[in-house]
Amino acid sequence: MSVFSSKNKATNNETTQQAGINIIGLGTTIEGNVDAQGDIRIDGKIIGNVVSRGKVVLGTTGIVEGNIIAKNAEVAGETTGKINIEELLVLKGTANINGDIVTSKLMVETGANFTGTCQMGAVVKELSSGNTSEVKVANVR
After folding, report:
1. pLDDT tens digit string along 2-20?
2. What is the pTM assigned to this prediction?
3. What gap in Å lies between CA 82 and CA 66, rounded to an integer?
4. Buried b or exposed e, range 12-44, using 16+ CB within 10 angstroms
5. Which of 32, 70, 92, 95 could form a disulfide with 56 if both were Cys (CB 3.0 to 4.6 A apart)?
């Protein structure tokens, strides 16, 4: 059997699409919503909502002017808008957050700036652009 059979190619393409890593580089600006099946790293600027079924990493030079909805996130840059994370949100020491946070778990490093409300223990029922439901909030603020 050939290593390059059509069956193997389909399987490899499906795996790549499911585990795809997306990068928005420094100097890049996107106006509009971003919806990613896999992880996404943002070192540029997005003016719009970011939805990921994986992890969102906002680098120190990254800026998001809109909502962030993801399974996990690590923020070292600037955001203006609501952050809705299903599992763990990490705010690095360089993070500048202006908006509300809803997450199951939150880790904040010294130096992070946050202006808004925080709901922890929330369970996000569905990850889809604009269609996120909060099912349960165990602890508020």
Report:
1. 444 444 444 444 443 455 7
2. 0.74
3. 7
4. eeeeeeeeeeeebeeeeeeeeebbbeebbbbbb
5. 70
Distance CA 126, CA 139 (A): 20
pLDDT (average), residues 57-84: 97
Confidence (pLDDT) at 119: 94
Distance CA 81, CA 79 (A): 6
Residue 57 CA to residue 74 CA, distance in Å, equals 5
More confident residue, 10 or 56: 56
C-alpha–C-alpha distance, residues 136 and 124, integer Å: 8
Strand locations in 2-49 (E):
21-24, 29-31, 34-36, 39-42, 45-47
pLDDT in tens, 98-115: 999 999 999 999 999 999
The closest alpha carbon to 63, from 84, 81, 42, 82, belongs to: 42
- 80-118 burial code (b ≥16 CB/10 A, e <16): bbbbbbbeebbbbebbbbebbbbbbebeeeeebebeeeb
